[in-house]
């Protein structure tokens, strides 16, 4: 029977923090693998060492060539199954070939230093990942732990939170956890944004008592959005947005195109629903961009603004799971054709039309793209006061067209 690959978690305290069992396995193994920092904890090791560098694929190739013949240990920081290498090795070699011996994770240790429970915390890794989209992941949550890197430092995180007005959070930064130079301290975001921290750290964010929480609903009132006035028609009305969002049926990790975004109202709502995904708001009129940016920040919806006249510019975006077309600038047929071609299987295109010409053009273009369309006419009225009573004022009727791409 082949040998197993031992994946042993190790902390900043090095060999001194390992169990007797882990130390025995390391001492008796023939090959010891890990990063330079982990390998430096065992200067007296006499077997072969493999430094984890040059990418995982290259490392795994070397690992595959040695572990079947000699007992092999891979050292990894903290819990190797928590944003670590162990999960990758299990997928490559199978669970029967990998035995994981975890150390405490950096997040576990950080919450221990804070003296707070962490079963209810949101855990987010920014290590090697973009900070884009973090706002909607954080907003409304009471407790989070963030894993950082050389780019997404505590200072960068603080500046990002301030950009979206998230001053209700206090930060607890833990540097060099478990090591002799460990330092843990509370920070106000303004001070944190100007401070330089060491590379190895964990950031815990907690919403301060009495600060309340952000609403997690949808279809916000029209007046809540920054928009061009006195012009009308540059925001998808609340009642229509509610139906559009229902038709889009977004998954948390959805990629969304909002074409003819106008004020960015639909984009903002989509970003809050698809909080793990990516939302692109495409708008041709530069005069609308300041309102789109204002709504992006106000609603803590970190969508990407694309200044372009669709379909131009769409080819640079990732393939969508959902497309909303609120305005076309006379390019409706070409936009639908491009969106239908790029749409992922199972994806949906939703169009709002206020004229019968746009309705006809939508149905025709969707049929030409091989998609079967459904249409709903939405006629809503809003109550208005009159002489101590209430009358109803009708909104313009809107056609909502939707079509799905077969799986």
Count of structural domains? 3
Q: How many extended strands? A: 19
**CATH class descriptor of the largest domain:** Alpha Beta
At CATH level 3, the topology of the largest domain is Rossmann fold
Number of helices: 13
The low-pLDDT segments are none
CATH architecture of the largest domain: 3-Layer(aba) Sandwich
Helix/sheet category = alpha/beta
Strand order of the largest sheet: 13-12-11-14-15-19-16
Determine Rg (CA atoms, Å).
27 Å
| Main sheet specs | 7 strands, mixed
What is the name of the CATH superfamily of the largest domain? Vaccinia Virus protein VP39
Query: Which outline best applies?
Result: elongated
Distance between the termini: 42 Å
Estimate the strand proportion.
25-35%
Verbal overview:
- The radius of gyration is 27 Å and the shape is elongated.
- It has helices at 20-28, 36-39, 56-66, 86-93, 106-114, 134-138, 154-163, 189-192, 238-248, 265-273, 289-298, 332-342, 356-368; strands spanning 5-10, 31-34, 48-51, 72-77, 98-101, 122-125, 143-147, 169-175, 183-187, 201-207, 255-259, 278-283, 304-307, 322-325, 348-353, 373-378, 381-386, 389-394, 398-404.
- The model has no long low-confidence stretch (mean pLDDT 94).
- Helix content is 28%, strand content 25%.
- It folds into three domains: 5-103, Tetrapyrrole methylase, N-terminal domain (Cobalt-precorrin-4 Transmethylase, domain 1, 3-Layer(aba) Sandwich), CATH 3.40.1010.10; 107-207, Tetrapyrrole methylase, C-terminal domain (Methyltransferase, Cobalt-precorrin-4 Transmethylase, Domain 2, 2-Layer Sandwich), CATH 3.30.950; 222-404, Rossmann fold, CATH 3.40.50.
- It is built from 13 helices and 19 strands.
- The protein has 407 residues and is α/β, with parallel strands linked by helices.
- The two termini are 42 Å apart.
- Strands 13-12-11-14-15-19-16 form a seven-stranded mixed sheet, with helices on both faces. Strands 3-2-4-1-5 form a five-stranded parallel sheet, with helices on both faces. The chain has a five-stranded mixed sheet with strand order 6-7-10-8-9.
- 40% of the residues are buried.
- Strand 8 (169-175) and strand 9 (183-187) form a beta hairpin.
